[in-house]
Write a structure and sequence with these properties.
heterodimer; A: alpha/beta; Nucleotidyltransferase, domain 5; 2 domains; 5-stranded mixed beta sheet; 10 helices; 18% strand; globular; B: alpha/beta; 10 strands
């Protein structure tokens, strides 16, 4: 069979990225322009600034990717692009660039759901097998997704309030770690003791999560200690916090694995880079004797390689869009 | 020489095709929230109707702002992607200098766009389209004082509903005249093309205030 090369474009939040992936599982080249240093001084992503940066970067990123791959637009079979969910102003830049290229080079346009992209980052590690359970954990998402086959997504549950990554960043702020504090909490969590008593959030039989209560518990604990004139041990607080997060995620994942008779597990999203969570999930899968993968650390956060990988499956299944497609800030994965 | 004109900075999409000194085709469409669905397809439709392939265009003239931030970005992204990928020369003009070309019955032309909270994007141009007061984000009453000090023979040009004291002309671009006026403008590297916002984001303004 002829090789299929998909050019992916991703601009849903604060990374402008372009990638070329062969046959949905082999990365040829990926370029990511991150805006993290720009947003750092605002304590989080500022949507209008993100949109402005995407406009400046978009053609440069695409050109660099083609150069790195030593390919021309003519060599590409189809263009995959994130249409949503995400920041609308940011999504539009990648989408308009993709539409323009699709028209100029007469290539099929493949719209890709951002979360499908995160899931398919795992296909770049190893060809995914089904039925599969995906745990999507990031600054914007916390979802358990069941996939009986390629491109069939059944959401089992998700967060009822804050996303887990959002909770990490807020807890980091409380204990004085600059944005984005998640990775630093993970590092500290390996150095302290689980000495603070925090509640296990939404400890029920559903597949749902809730992190706003846990966030408040950390804020209150910190506040109460300060009132008493005590200094919070940041290492211990990070350790205690991560312990609770890992425990509740593990519990819900294990339940889904059993209920759905899962044979293959994957994690995806920025928080899938978290070492403590990876260790716990690896143990669960090994004990349950099921196969599992995590994306490469660099492809846990937003990137176009995952969009091109997912795009391949949409492409071979004929999921091609007209050029009048719009971006969607929110959209259910289906 | 074939020129493609693109302006998505206001609540209208203005696009046209000019060959030498003749207008081949144009589209002027008001949109609400569907600019991103229709901008590119309208441009394609206009070109295909005249059997003009993307490669046939010799130069793109892009209006890059000021105006609606999202609107500006859509036109800019389409135009810079087009120009970069096919190596088509491209130059940019401000939405206000394009608007200033609309009328020649007055000594001074004041293109003006609503920027909300008593602010406007505006400039002052003379009848030869020379810029007298450069395009800026300005409080409406400050602009009014400036224009009243200058002359009483002026006209505001706008499509926005702004309360204005003086003659107001609705903006309906003469795309042929605009292209002919600006066709020699210097080409720029498509990678460096950006929207001309004329205004920092609120987050940047707040940060600057804090640092002052």
């Amino acid at each position: 069979m002829k090789d299929v090369f998909i050019l992916g474009i991703e601009s849903s939040c604060d990374e402008t990225s372009c990638s070329i992936v062969k046959n949905g599982n082999e990365e040829i080249a990926t370029v990511i322009s991150s805006q993290i240093d720009i947003h750092k001084k605002y304590g989080g992503v500022v949507p209008e600034i993100a949109s402005r940066e995407h406009v400046k970067n978009i053609t440069i990123v695409i050109e660099e990717c083609l150069n790195e791959a030593n390919m021309k637009m003519e060599d590409i079979d189809a263009i995959a692009v994130t249409y949503g969910p995400g920041l609308i102003g940011s999504l539009l830049i990648g989408l308009e660039a993709a539409k323009t290229l699709a028209h100029i080079y007469q290539k099929p346009l493949i719209p890709v759901h951002h979360i499908a992209g995160h899931i398919y980052a795992n296909n770049l590690v190893k060809d995914m097998k089904f039925p599969l359970l995906a745990l999507v954990i990031s600054g914007g998402h916390t979802e358990l997704v069941y996939m009986p086959e390629h491109l069939k997504f059944e959401k089992l549950g998700g967060t009822l309030d804050d996303a887990v990554g959002e909770c990490y960043d807020k807890v980091a702020r409380v204990i004085g770690i600059p944005y984005p504090g998640g990775p630093e909490i993970d590092r500290m969590a390996h150095l302290g003791n689980n000495s603070y008593n925090l509640p296990l959030p939404l400890n029920d039989d559903s597949y749902n999560f809730s992190f706003s209560g846990l966030k408040s518990a950390v804020i209150n604990l910190n506040h109460n200690e300060e009132q008493k004139g005590h200094i919070v041990n940041k290492m211990d607080l990070a350790t205690s916090f991560q312990h609770v997060v890992v425990e509740i995620i593990s519990k819900k994942v294990l339940k889904a694995i059993k209920d759905k008779d899962i044979k293959y597990f994957i994690a995806a999203g920025g928080v899938a880079a978290n070492r403590g969570i990876r260790e716990a999930l690896s143990n669960i899968c090994e004990n349950a004797k099921i196969e599992y993968t995590f994306p490469a650390i660099k492809y846990c956060t937003d990137n176009a390689a995952m969009i091109a990988a997912a795009g391949y499956y949409y492409y071979i299944n004929g999921k091609i869009s007209s050029l009048v497609i719009n971006a969607k800030s929110s959209d259910t994965l289906k | 020489m074939k020129y493609l004109y693109i302006d998505t900075c206001s609540s209208y999409l203005y696009t046209g095709l000019v060959e030498n000194d003749k207008l081949l085709s144009e589209r002027k469409i008001k949109f609400d929230h569907d600019l991103s669905t229709m901008a590119l397809s309208t441009i394609i439709d206009m070109m295909e109707e005249k059997n003009i392939a993307p490669n046939d265009v010799d130069k793109i003239i892009l209006v890059n702002g000021p105006g609606s931030f999202t609107g500006c970005r859509i036109g800019v992204t389409i135009a810079k992607t087009y120009a970069w990928s096919l190596k088509v020369p491209i130059s940019v003009i401000s939405s206000l200098e394009a608007m200033a070309l609309t009328s020649d019955e007055y000594d001074y032309h004041v293109p003006i766009l609503d920027a909300r909270r008593d602010y406007v994007f505006a400039g002052i141009y003379d009848s030869q389209n020379n810029c007298i007061l450069k395009d800026q984000y300005i409080k409406k009453n400050v602009l009014e004082t400036a224009i009243n000090n200058l002359s009483d023979n002026f006209v505001y040009i706008t499509n926005d509903s702004i309360e204005l004291n003086g003659d107001v002309k609705k903006y309906d671009p003469d795309i042929l005249a605009i292209v002919l006026k600006f066709k020699e403008r210097e080409n720029i590297n498509p990678h460096t093309i950006d929207a001309n916002y004329l205004k920092l984001t609120e987050a940047e303004e707040n940060l600057n205030d804090k640092e002052c």
